[in-house]
Write a structure and sequence with these properties.
The complex is a heterodimer of chains A (566) and B (237). Chain A contains 23 helices and four strands. Chain A is mainly alpha-helical and 566 residues long. The chains are: A mainly alpha (566), B alpha/beta (237). Chains A and B meet through α16, α17 and α22 of A and α2 and α3 of B.
Chain lengths: 566, 237
């Protein structure tokens, strides 16, 4: 990119800025015109003077770009705007890139759905050309360094800022979930990514990250309140709540896996089997008519049994393999995952006991009942109907809070320090008196415990448990969520889980290609950001050792293993 | 003088290769004992076996009258043997402070402020850079950190494996001064060195190792004066 940038800078010189500004204005004007004639695709972009859906994203990007450009040059650049937005050029450049993506994705989708670019109305062309001009012009702008904001705000104001940011996240999530058109959904995600990266270039994201790190408890509490409010934005619709609960189950499991992979550095390729053991325990001990054990203890007991069974499996797998070095563990856990699935497939009474009904699994698991509260019944709170999935959502929120707490406590403790030492230099850790074997076993069994716990709830949530829900692919997805989001951080894994679970649900049409796309995504991540989207400081140091600038930036901060984007 | 560490007829093998072929020595309370010898003589193997990282194939090791051969490494650290490994092996991406706290890993739930202060007094440079990642340190500073880390476990016996390795003569002298200081404070030290001159100058007692056997044992001063030692290890004709 930099070669193109410098070429553009030489050819355009000072003309870059007016070109970019004109482009941004064109983009904005285009959104008030019709983009196509067919009102049934991409959320009706046919009406003049009334921007809808993607046109609104375009308009917002264009206006933001105009503000950034005015902060870089022109009459407003020195006093009011320039001093307030010192990182304008970088942000304008980001706006350029994402304007092209956001506008042209829609134009291409119109062309694809109506068979040809002829079907794009003038408005689409105006915005499209404007976006390209903004992109080219902003590339020629001189660099401005990413500023570090040092607003000294009272902590009350900081808390309000964090709350506002979280509410924006909630609004965006609710809005995104309600997009039924896949093209518009992707377009919105691109728009969102653009806005986030722009705020990063302005230093706002960095400021927020520091503030959340300082006010960690408040942030956590606020995040849970926001997550708690989510079902109330859904008007009793089960479609989105079903996705949300699946995301939560996936995220809980992924955080458990993150203890094993991210903290202790053990590669577990069969983690889904621990979720499966919990789920099977939950199903077998439930009141389903298809189980062969007629003992139905209260659910809290079932949860404990499920988690302990999973932890026992963890101990059985871990104790012989954790004594030897890493690769063996990966192979053994991979095999364990398959053995689990095959065993569940074959425990149907033809050979050995009839426990699992074989490939048919255990269907018709009744909804949970805890202390007279029926999770299958919808409830009305403050005039808003909360359906079956909302009930599970709240329960899972409690579970994930517990898991996050367990994760944080372990990370900050003496045990956490021992894990880091093992990851860094196992022999030296041993010489320092770290009981490496039992610490690794603790991570392994602890991770299995949390997965088993989540599994018992998953059984009731899913209504049925079958062996093919627990195949290797699911372990691979869990691992991808950890790697994609950021090893060793909670926020990163939550983000990774949301992306990996939400995208396939919303984009049904690409489910055939999802493995291909995730593979590509992982390759791209490994090349450009191997530490994951939200990385821990220490991981960044591990993966960018040659990067001296970063080393300096992080110097003195390594002790502080916080979730904070770079 | 009471022997704090007693090694009798110790044998260690890597598979079929016998690295240590039956050596015996002891370290008295408050003494500084040196093991010298060339590469492959079995010095490092001996230390690693004492600290439990390797299992002996024969012989016994006793620490304060207790058998510790075949005891897991973390128990041995808890008993009070600290090991500064060859090549320092500090944790490069942990801060100085985290490295030091890790040294005290075996001491659960104790207050470590006083111990930290003592290490910082011994090596002021560590205090100045306590939040810095240890991997950014120079070799000498890393060696100081490795020694400080070992001291954090509150050891009764400090074992050092080639602390002079890869250091400039000035830094090496500084490290040796530190060892003298530690001994004067009453720390018992078992020092493994290739640099025979430096090691024997400090040592109350020295043992010369050659391919897995002790060939000479005497006081440090006597060994320094020994013609054979001077010829083989100090490069004199």
């Amino acid at each position: 990119m930099s070669a193109i940038d410098s070429w553009l800078r030489r050819t355009l010189g000072r003309a870059g800025w007016p070109i970019a500004l004109a482009g941004a204005v064109l983009m904005a004007v285009g959104t008030f015109l019709s983009w196509t004639y067919d009102p049934n695709i991409v959320e009706n972009l046919t009406i003049y003077l009334y921007p809808a859906g993607p046109q609104v994203y375009t308009l917002i990007l264009a206006l933001l770009a105009v503000v950034m450009l005015l902060a870089v040059r022109g009459p407003l650049a020195t006093r009011p705007l320039g001093s307030l937005l010192p990182g304008g050029a970088g942000a304008a450049r980001t706006a350029g890139v994402f304007s092209v993506l956001v506008v042209w994705l829609i134009l291409v989708s119109i062309a694809v759905q109506l068979h040809g670019f002829v079907n794009i109305d003038p408005g689409g062309w105006v915005s499209g050309v404007g976006a390209l001009a903004l992109f080219v012009g902003s590339r020629a702008l001189p660099d401005s360094p990413r500023p570090v904001l040092d607003w000294r705000l009272p902590s009350a104001v900081q808390i309000i800022l964090i709350a506002v940011a979280l509410l924006l996240v909630l609004t965006a999530a609710a809005y995104a979930l309600n997009r039924s058109d896949a093209w518009v959904f992707i377009d919105f995600l691109l728009f969102l990514a653009g806005v986030v990266l722009m705020s990063r270039n302005l230093g706002i994201l960095g400021y927020l990250a520091d503030a959340t790190a300082r006010l960690r408890r408040v942030t956590l509490l606020a995040a849970f309140i926001v997550a708690f409010l989510f079902p109330f934005t859904q008007n009793g619709s089960d479609a989105n709540m079903s996705i949300a609960t699946q995301v939560l189950i996936f995220a809980t499991t992924a955080i458990g896996l993150n203890i094993v992979v991210g903290l202790a550095g053990l590669l577990d390729l069969g983690y889904i089997a621990f979720l499966g053991s919990g789920a099977y325990v939950g199903a077998i001990l439930s009141a389903s008519a298809f189980t062969h054990i007629h003992w139905h203890p209260p659910f809290l007991v079932v949860v404990l049994i499920g988690a302990c069974v999973a932890a026992c499996f963890g101990l059985i797998i871990g104790s012989p393999t954790l004594r030897v070095s890493g690769d063996y563990l990966a192979i053994v856990t991979l095999a364990f995952g398959e053995i689990f699935r095959l065993t569940m497939n074959n425990l149907d009474g033809s050979n050995g006991p009839d426990l699992t009904n074989g490939p048919n699994g255990i269907p018709a698991i009744p909804d949970l009942r805890i202390g007279g509260f029926d999770f299958g019944e919808p409830h009305t709170v403050l005039g808003i109907e909360l359906g079956r999935f909302a009930n599970y959502y709240f329960l899972l929120l409690v579970v994930i809070a517990f898991v996050v707490l367990a994760f944080a406590r372990m990370n900050d403790s003496r045990i956490g320090r021992g894990w880091v030492a093992i990851r860094e230099d196992e022999r030296a850790a041993e010489a320092m008196g770290v009981n490496t074997f039992s610490l690794k076993l603790l991570a392994f069994a602890g991770g299995a415990f949390l997965a088993g716990l989540a599994g018992t709830i998953k059984a009731h949530h899913d209504v049925s448990v079958t062996p093919d829900q627990y195949q290797f692919l699911e372990s691979a997805f869990l691992l991808s969520a950890v790697v994609l989001g950021g090893m060793g951080t909670v926020g990163g894994v939550l983000l990774g889980a949301v992306i990996l679970k939400l995208l396939p649900e919303k984009l049904r049409f690409f489910s055939d290609y999802r493995l291909l796309l995730f593979g590509l995504l992982l390759v791209v991540m490994m090349r450009f950001r191997p530490e994951g989207m939200l990385a821990s400081r220490r991981r960044q140091l591990e993966l960018h050792e040659e990067d001296e600038e970063l080393a300096e930036e992080l110097e003195g901060q390594v002790a502080d293993v916080e979730v904070a984007p770079r | 003088m009471n022997a704090i560490l007693e090694v009798v007829d110790l044998q260690v093998a890597y598979g079929k290769i016998r690295a240590v072929k039956g050596i015996s020595f002891s370290v008295g309370e408050g003494q500084l004992v040196s093991l010298i010898g060339t590469n492959g003589a079995g010095k490092t193997t001996t230390l690693r076996t004492v600290s439990g990282l390797l299992s002996p194939t024969g012989g016994t090791i006793s620490f304060q009258g207790r058998r510790i051969d075949n005891m897991p490494a973390h128990h041995i650290v808890e008993l009070g043997i600290a090991h500064v490994p060859e090549g320092r092996h500090i944790f490069p991406r942990m801060s100085v402070e985290e490295n030091l706290l890790l040294g005290a890993y075996a001491r659960k739930g104790q207050h470590l402020g006083a111990d930290l202060a003592r290490v910082f007094e011994l090596f002021p440079v560590l205090q100045e850079r306590r939040k810095q990642a240890a991997g950014t340190f120079s070799g000498g500073e890393q060696q100081m950190l490795a020694i400080g880390r070992a001291l954090m476990s509150g050891p009764r016996l400090l074992m050092l494996d080639e602390p002079s390795m890869g250091l400039s003569p000035i830094i090496m002298a500084r490290i040796m001064d530190t060892l003298t200081e530690l001994r004067e404070r009453g720390t018992t030290i078992l020092l493994v060195e290739q640099n025979a001159q430096a090691a024997l100058e400090l040592a109350d007692y020295g043992h010369v190792l050659e391919i897995g056997r002790i060939t000479l044992s005497d006081t440090g001063a006597n060994l320094l004066g020994n013609a054979e030692v001077r010829k083989a290890y100090l490069g004199e004709d």
